[in-house]
Design goal:
The structure is a single chain. The chain is mainly alpha-helical and about 575 residues long. Helices cover about 70% and strands about 0% of the residues. It has two domains: about 450 residues, no CATH class; about 80 residues. The protein has a two-stranded antiparallel sheet. Helix 7 packs parallel to helix 12. The longest helix is centred in the C-terminal third of the chain and has 54 residues. The N and C termini lie far apart (about 70 Å).
């Protein structure tokens, strides 16, 4: 009950409401997504008390989660990878004139899924914290390795790109002073870099400014045209079709959220596939199936809330969004981990209790205010984007009152734009940046414990089991890579064999068709240069203009026209 005493205080109640409202408004801006929205709003919490700051950030978190679904449903503009699943049935419902019920079932499913996850979080978090308090440096190092590898392997996009970008994040994290002996690393003589690079300018630049720069180039943020919402609450038929999908997806999303890297994307995909397989009308999925939309949103919200368990109890952020919240906790001089429940009980239980309140506020605010939120989407991007950039840079400056942070944010904004353009997933970068120092410190502590022997990692059962998980995950990735390459080679080989098989026959036909009655060769063989330049070959006939039939003789051409050249046989895949 102490958590509710903290969460229900007037100040905390006010800030969780502000967090939910502001998070929803910022989250619905197309292209930003929860991570970018949270990074942009992070500076708002620096002047608050630790418990109030984290409660507000939690409200912003699930506010942005719901807000990002509005452009995904109305404009088919997903703000993050998990929102892609929302567009599959949400946008078709909008096209059918059922945008209101689509937004309504999203709000209700998110509320129910979040509530189930928060109940599980309440009972499971203390158990995990007690277990985590008994593990040492080797286990913590193994756990961070599992987190980085699973996030890289299970993330969206290319696996190798994800691993490379996670490595880049770890490299950036070592800039500054050595945590053990204080040696300067990668500072290049800069006083500012000797203190390391703060997470705020990196998060704001990489996710916030980078996304905005990319949307400016691609024109992703287009103003919403006239869209009729209709009734907001789902119909009785919608509810009957969705009720069991919501129940199943709540449970599935809760357990997926406990895994490193098992955030909203994986839970949404698994829930959608499960419901499509169970459904009596699977062909309706992708064409406006309300149960498909309810399943993805419920699982997404459930996994997002249960992901707080490894963050608060183990100190391991399981996804990029919670990595930003992890950084906010560090800025408040709070270190997430097994001792948080004992050292900062007000923060631990206050955050969990605020989730109940925030989830209710999210439902109360969003159902009646959906129509008002939609009006924000009618503001063109060329008006909103410059305002967001200026406010974000002002927020970055306010953290340490130094222009160096602003320059860092701009540099990482350009880097985020380029990585987005080159189709890199940015999530592994911020996770590598957060987990890199933890990996280093825990590894060096383990080496001190074992006098430099690596055998300590296989002598302890927990760390051994975690490294076995990493080895299995890497093995599956390599096997799938080799299998895909083999499949590609077989496909390419079949095409080559098809071409070789038909080459002799095709060459003979072309040879016959290219010969005139007097035995001389046509322009096809005698004038290859003319075919490229458009000029007639020396001593050869004038080239027939494009669009003229091959059998039509020109006034100055021979009486007998050349025979039309036959087309090459179609590729194998077209024949099939």
């Amino acid at each position: 009950m102490s958590g509710f005493e903290v969460a229900l205080s007037p100040v905390n109640l006010l800030f969780v409401a502000i967090g939910v409202l502001v998070g929803t408004i910022v989250g619905l801006l197309p292209g930003l997504g929860p991570t970018a929205s949270l990074a942009l709003l992070l500076p708002l919490t620096f002047s608050l008390e630790p418990a109030t700051a984290i409660i507000m950030l939690a409200g912003i978190y699930y506010g942005t989660m719901y807000g990002g679904r509005i452009p995904a449903i109305l404009l088919r503009l997903p703000g993050d990878s998990s929102s892609v699943m929302t567009t599959l049935d949400g946008y078709p419902m909008t096209q059918q004139g059922r945008a209101g019920p689509a937004l309504g079932i999203t709000a209700i499913g998110s509320f129910l899924g979040g509530t189930v996850a928060i109940i599980g979080l309440t009972f499971l978090a203390p158990v995990v914290a007690n277990f985590a308090s008994s593990i040492g440096a080797p286990e913590m190092f193994a756990l961070t390795v599992v987190g980085v590898m699973m996030i890289s392997l299970l993330g969206s996009g290319s696996t190798w790109k994800a691993i490379a970008i996670a490595g880049l994040g770890i490299l950036v994290s070592v800039v500054g002073l050595d945590p053990i002996d204080g040696t300067q690393r990668l500072t290049f003589g800069s006083i500012e870099l000797s203190g390391g690079i703060d997470i705020v300018p990196i998060a704001v630049g990489l996710f916030g400014l980078g996304e905005i720069f990319h949307s400016m180039e691609t024109g992703a943020h287009e103003a919403l045209k006239s869209t009729k919402l209709g009734r907001i609450l789902p119909t009785r038929v919608d509810w009957l079709r969705s009720r069991f999908a919501i129940l199943r997806s709540s449970i599935l999303g809760f357990f997926v959220g406990l895994m490193p890297g098992g955030g909203g994307t994986i839970s949404s995909v698994l829930a959608y596939g499960m419901e499509k397989r169970i459904s009596k009308r699977p062909k309706k999925f992708g064409k406006g199936a309300v149960e498909g939309l309810a399943a993805t949103e419920t699982a997404d919200n459930a996994s997002s809330n249960s992901a707080f368990i490894p963050l608060l109890t183990l100190g391991i952020p399981p996804n990029a969004v919670l990595a930003v919240i992890y950084g906010a906790l560090l800025l408040q001089n709070i270190t997430p981990g097994p001792e948080l429940i004992n050292e900062e009980p007000d923060v631990f239980w206050g955050v969990i209790a605020s989730m109940y309140i925030g989830n209710v506020l999210l439902l109360i605010l969003n159902l009646p205010l959906i129509a008002a939120f939609v009006q924000i989407l009618r503001i063109p991007g060329y008006v909103l984007n410059p305002i967001i950039v200026v406010v974000a840079l002002l927020g970055v400056y306010s953290v340490n009152n130094t222009m160096f942070d602003v320059y860092v944010a701009i540099v990482f904004g350009v880097l985020g734009y380029l990585l987005k353009k080159w189709r890199f997933d940015l999530g592994p970068f911020i996770l590598g940046f957060i987990l890199g120092p933890i990996m280093e410190v825990q590894f060096r502590r383990a080496m001190l414990m074992s006098d430099g022997s690596l055998g300590i990692f296989v002598e302890r059962p927990v760390s051994l089991a975690m490294f076995i998980v990493v080895a299995i995950a890497i093995s599956f990735t390599v096997i799938n890579f080799l299998r895909s390459r083999r499949t590609g080679r077989q496909t390419a080989g079949s095409r080559v064999m098809h071409a070789v098989t038909h080459s002799d026959e095709y060459a003979e036909e072309v040879r016959e068709d290219s010969l005139l009655d007097d035995g001389s060769e046509t322009e096809l063989e005698a004038g290859t240069d003319s075919a490229a330049t458009g000029e007639p070959a020396a001593g050869g006939p004038e080239r027939i203009p494009s669009g003229t039939g091959a059998s039509e003789a020109r006034p100055d051409s021979p009486e007998k026209p050349t025979t039309a050249v036959r087309k090459a046989p179609p590729p194998l895949d077209q024949q099939q």
